[in-house]
User: Which sequence fits this backbone?
């Protein structure tokens, strides 16, 4: 079991540390809403990954090309929507006024963001899925150990990211606004890249 637990910890750390649209979204939310209100969003993979793991590991042996393209397009459109929201927050930034709360925010929005990103589908199909299936076939304890290590490392790393960027507000409003603008641009880039992969990628 310990081998699978260690593998899960390593994969979880790698998945959370890899720059991507979900991580950028968490950063922008940390800058806008503060780390206390954003910290719950670190649990988003626990909410959205269940169906993803089921589809990728127990149903799909390989990700079909058309499905991968669809996920890129859907994810790209949603990321562009998040970029626009971050841009509006940057444009209307006022240090003397509280930031408006979105109608859908925190954990639900973060879970939707993660579910519409093609990364988890590809990751669980091509990387972690085979390890999970092999461990589960040996004994369910190995599979549970792998999943436990994966999500302990992933959620812990995401929480650290939220805490680090959430405290950026203490550096001053100009720095906070600048970082929010950078996150908006980064989300825009990720969204356009996902659309390009969906329409022109293989």
Assistant:
């Amino acid at each position: 079991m310990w081998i699978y637990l260690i593998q899960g910890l390593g994969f979880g750390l790698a998945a959370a540390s890899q720059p991507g649209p979900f991580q950028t979204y968490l950063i922008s939310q940390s800058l806008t809403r503060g780390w206390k209100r954003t910290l719950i969003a670190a649990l988003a993979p626990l909410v959205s990954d269940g169906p993803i793991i089921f589809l990728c590991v127990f149903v799909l042996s390989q990700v079909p090309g058309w499905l991968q393209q669809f996920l890129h397009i859907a994810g790209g459109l949603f990321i562009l929507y998040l970029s626009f929201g971050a841009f509006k927050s940057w444009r209307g930034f006022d240090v003397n006024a509280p930031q408006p709360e979105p109608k859908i925010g925190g954990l639900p929005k973060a879970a939707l963001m993660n579910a519409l990103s093609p990364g988890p589908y590809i990751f669980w199909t091509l990387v972690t899925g085979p390890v999970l299936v092999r461990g589960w076939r040996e004994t369910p304890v190995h599979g549970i150990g792998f999943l436990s290590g994966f999500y302990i490392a992933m959620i812990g790393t995401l929480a650290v990211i939220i805490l680090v960027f959430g405290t950026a507000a203490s550096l001053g409003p100009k720095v906070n606004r600048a970082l929010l603008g950078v996150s908006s641009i980064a989300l825009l880039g990720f969204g356009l890249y996902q659309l390009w992969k969906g329409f022109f990628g293989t």
In short: The radius of gyration is 18 Å. The CA atoms of residues 24 and 186 lie 7 Å apart.
